[in-house]
Design goal:
This protein has 125 residues and is α+β, with helices and mostly antiparallel strands. It has a single domain, classed as Pleckstrin-homology domain (PH domain)/Phosphotyrosine-binding domain (PTB) (PH-domain like). Helices cover 31% and strands 38% of the residues. The model has no long low-confidence stretch (mean pLDDT 87).
């Protein structure tokens, strides 16, 4: 079993009364849903392209927030980690882990490659 760095449940009114569980290991993010029929999805952290934090007024009142995750994973794609505690801290921890995994796997996005090409062309002229 993977070393779990973080875990939480989707919350309603700040209470963990949901059958959706989230967890993160050093190299993967897991989303488990269901009570009788369980479904577990995972995405490798190096496949995560972008993270966005959203906190509505109601979420702030109950001390939760949601993280929108854009990934290149075929099964999950873009998904939301909904109504979790300490959402800003979790987003930051996830961001750090994503960058560590990208460096470890030597994975670079096209965005970084385009920026590097633009820098080369600027220096030539």
């Amino acid at each position: 079993m993977a070393n779990i760095l973080w875990h939480d449940r989707k919350r309603y009114f700040g209470l963990p009364i949901s059958f959706t569980k989230y967890s993160m290991s050093e190299d993967r993010l897991f989303v488990e849903t269901g009570l009788l029929n369980l479904s577990q999805d995972e995405v490798r952290l190096y496949r995560i392209l972008d993270l966005q934090l959203k906190r509505s007024l109601g979420q702030r009142i109950f001390g939760v927030g949601s993280i929108i995750v854009s990934s290149s994973d075929k099964s999950l794609g873009t998904f939301e980690i909904k109504n979790i505690k300490n959402s800003a801290n979790v987003k930051e921890m996830l961001s750090v882990q994503v960058e560590q995994q990208r460096e470890a796997k030597r994975v670079y996005t096209r965005e970084n490659m385009v920026d590097d090409v633009d820098d080369v062309h600027e220096g030539e002229f």
